[in-house]
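Category: protein sequence paired with discrete backbone structure
Discipline: computational structural biology
Format: plain text, a pair of labelled lines
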Amino acid sequence: MAKKIAVIVRDRQAEALRMGVGMILADDAVDVYVLDRAVEKTDDNDLNIETMGDMDVKVFTNFKGNENMEYLTTEEIARKILEYDHILPY
């Protein structure tokens, strides 16, 4: 049975985004949450975010400056986090 996995992106953005892409291979439902700041503009981060979009991974953020991500308030994110089987904080 597929698990619901949330990847929380904070301090180690590149590692967290890479993990979000990698978790797709486990055939589980993966959502990514970018919290509190803009995603650093690097080739790796851009590629990982693009790949997640191509693979229908939902990427949410509470920072209005992040492009190609669905904006949710911190409170909305806190409520959604309760729906997951596993939460991976970075």
Remarks:
- The longest strand covers residues 4-9.
- The chain has a mean pLDDT of 95.
- The chain is about 35% helix and 25% strand.
- Residues 17 and 64 are 18 Å apart (CA to CA).
